[in-house]
Amino acid sequence: MRHHSFVSIAAAGMIAGAALAQATSEPASADAGNWVAPGTEGSPIKGDIFHAQVLLDLAGFSPGVIDGREGTSLKQAIRGFQEANRLDVTGELDTATRQALLRESRPSTVTVELTQDDVGGPFTFPLPSDPEEQAKLDRLNYRNMLEKVAERYHTTPETVVALNGPDKLIGVGQALRLPNVVPASRDYGGSMEKQGALLAMLNVAADQPQGDYVIVDKSEGTLKVYEGEFPSGSTKGDGKLVAQFPVTTGSSHDPLPLGSWKVTTYSFLPPFNFQPDLFWDVADDKAEHKLPPGPNGPVGVAWLDLTKEHYGIHGTNEPQTIDKTQSHGCLRLTNWDVMRLSRMMPGFQAKFVA
Predict the structure, then answer these.
(1) Which of 25-34, 149-158, 165-174, 332-341 has the lowest mean pLDDT?
(2) How far out from the chain centre does Cα 201 lie?
(3) CATH 1.10.101.10 intervals, the chain
(4) What phi-psi label fits residue 121: left (phi over 0), alpha (psi between -120 and 50 degrees) or beta?
(5) Residues of CATH 2.40.440.10 domain(s) within the chain?
(6) How many CB atoms lie within 10 A of CB 212?
(7) Which residues 6+ apart lie within 8 Å of 86 measured at CB?
(8) Is 329's pLDDT higher than 60?
(9) If you write DSSP's letter for every residue of 162-200 in order, what string do you get?
(10) Is residue 121 predicted with pLDDT exceeding 70?
(11) Once rounded to an integer, what is the mean pLDDT over residues 317-334?
(12) Does pLDDT of 277 surpass 60?
């Protein structure tokens, strides 16, 4: 579907931003009179934090959504980067860490002339929350252009508005200032069916480091990718750390299944079997439904199946909540991070630790 008319990103954000506000308990402001340039006093975006998030994302140590704000996911990403680069592991953006990050000479933002790939539909609006209504749809697409472009550039609708101002127009041919996560390579040779298109859609570089196993640490809220031999004991990994992602690891009702597992099967844009008896917060008398695929589905764009029955590593329809809310037992990453993980290893062993 082509877009021959434009809307302001504030107007688009009233749709995508409303969902964000519910998830973060913060209002999604669209008041042009209150907007100030990013990196200046009064902006929610701290320039040095934003730049560090972009460079960490590029290095493979994901801070989650790039929004220019400090938080647990950023601190853990810094710790992982420091460990991998043999720096003092402090979790702080100290001088040595800044210098190591800046070895990659890349500005924090890029001005993008939007194409059909960036903002093309179809879209699903309104997006029903009830599984019974979702099951009637063919796909669970993005709600609108702003939600799609935000995920494509590893950020949030609120941050796109903060970067550009609410009066900025969105649509094919319009220019937006966005996080500079555009990959250097899109040569996705060897990709599985649907995988290459999703990697491109989510701005994941083709040239990812290759790993051998992962360690999921419940106490840290991280999934770490290592090169080397799989640790047979209770150690948390003594190989070479090559990448790290923030992860939601379950809940008190469905805790992380500690121990060693394997990931053997990948599914991209999978449908989702909604089974109420497997959800602690859903009444068992609710009907089962097969929900359609799409980035706004419960498992996002990918499911990496674990040898533990009913468990997998998957994406999400709410990237801003990673490591901040509970899940129903599975391991949840942002859509771009789960796709990046899928590119690093065609299958792998995993150790889950407390």
Answers:
(1) 25-34
(2) 13
(3) 7-182
(4) beta
(5) 213-353
(6) 17
(7) none
(8) no
(9) HHH-TT-EESTT-EEEEES---S----TTPPTTHHHHHH
(10) yes
(11) 79
(12) no
Residue 145: enclosing H or E segment and its boundaries? Answer: helix 145-152
Place of tokens 């973060």: 24
Pick the CATH number of 213-353 from 3.40.1400.10, 3.40.50.150, 2.40.440.10, 3.40.50.300: 2.40.440.10
Token code pair at residue 201: 């859609």
- Averaged confidence pLDDT in the chain: 88
Q: Does domain 7-182 have CATH number 3.90.78.10?
A: no
CA distances from 215 to 118, 231, 304, 319 (A): 34, 9, 15, 21
* Pairwise CA distance, residues 62 & 39, whole Å: 21
Q: What does the alpha-carbon distance between residue 34 and residue 31 come to, in Å, rounded to a whole number? A: 6
Tens-place pLDDT, residues 175-208: 999 999 999 999 999 999 999 999 999 999 999 9
